[in-house]
Amino acid sequence: MMTETKNNERVFTNRRERNYGIDLLRIVSMIMVTILHFSGYGGFLGTPENGLSYYVLSLIMVICYGAVDIFAIISGFVMYNSTVKYTKIINLWFQVVFYSYIFLILDKQIFHRPINILNVLSASFPVTISDNLWYFAAYFIMFFFIPLYNKIISSFANGFLFNYIIICFAILFIPTNISILGLLDGYSFLWLSLCYLIGAFIKKNENFFNSISNRIYVVIIIVGMLITYCCYMPVWDNINIFINYSPKDILEKYNSLTVLLPSISFLMLFSRMNIKRGKRIIRFFSPTSFSVYIIQCLPFTWNNIITKLHTFFNAPTALEKIGIVLGVSVMFYLAASLVDSLRIQLFRLLHIDMFINLICKLFSKIINAIKWQIKKHIKD
């Protein structure tokens, strides 16, 4: 997931013309992530016996499922052939820590939960906070491999890269119960890394991918989503097509081909948009995308709002459930974006970027000193 646009300018040494289509895709994708969370965990999805609400919410989830892949693919698309500055990842870390501390205080004030050393340490090292923040943990690890990934994409021929991506996808797609490195269902820095490589590969061959018509990309999106949606039909529940895995177990996950291909298609459709109006709105909301994810996935919000959404409403009808999920998701996105706009202003007022630069310089000196010692040891 990407962060503030101004930070993007710090990340890349080569200034590029801003692609507002990509910025818009970030906004749309984060709204999709929010809808996915509220529809999947808000308590309204239910089972096929719930009728209309189940099938409509399932369709909405399928439409939104590729948002996670989209963010990682965007990273590869915009960061390929660019010099990475580690101020970006430290800034993301500061954002998570900031909201973690805020929610610790709110938790104490509202629910009277004590603040202890363990809570403070968890908030200070967000990679270990919660499984809900798996994307940040995976992205954090992946970020340090980005220079290597860019080198791989730029150094090897397209034929080799295409075969390499296909092989990696085949390995990561195999259904497994192994949770090592988060391999299960694509919750992994390995899967995000593959998505990054795909995005970088697309950027390297942008002329070829732009030669494919919008109609084909739209067809890929529709077909991929329809195949995934079919997995929600009860007829497939007791049918295993691979060992003990049903079609839903195989296709309803981030590392599914029926999720990945529509995600790539969304990238191409948005990247070629010629946006002339609404740029100011896009510039306002795009920088807040990552923080909207943080706000909704931290334990305070997840446990007290998202998973308890159904408890705030008294026996809603099927149509009301659908309206509630969509309406609350959009309102939550807007509210979280407004909150983060204040956080951005606070960070500027406190000159957090200067502090982050100092940290990066310190780490750079430490790393250079270690390298010098290693070289000296080798020579001796």
What does this 3D model show about the protein?
With 380 residues, the chain is mostly helical. It has one domain. 70% of the residues lie in helices and 0% in strands. The protein has 19 helices and no strands. It has helices at residues 5-11, 20-41, 52-64, 67-79, 87-111, 117-124, 134-143, 146-155, 158-173, 189-204, 206-210, 214-230, 247-251, 257-271, 279-285, 289-297, 299-306, 318-349, 352-379. α4 crosses α14 (257-271) and α8 runs parallel beside α10. The longest helix has 32 residues, at 318-349. The protein starts with a helix and ends with a helix.
Structural key phrases:
70% helix; 380 residues; 19 helices; single chain; mainly alpha
Strand segment count: 0
What is the end-to-end distance?
A: 44 Å
Give the helix proportion (percent range): over 70%
Q: How many independent structural domains?
A: 1
Give the SSE string: HHHHHHHHHHHHHHHHHHH
| Sheet having the most strands | none
Low confidence ranges: 1-15
Number of helices: 19
Characterize the overall form: globular
Strand residues, percent = under 5%
* Rg value: 22 Å
User: What is the averaged pLDDT score?
Assistant: 86
SS-based class: mainly alpha
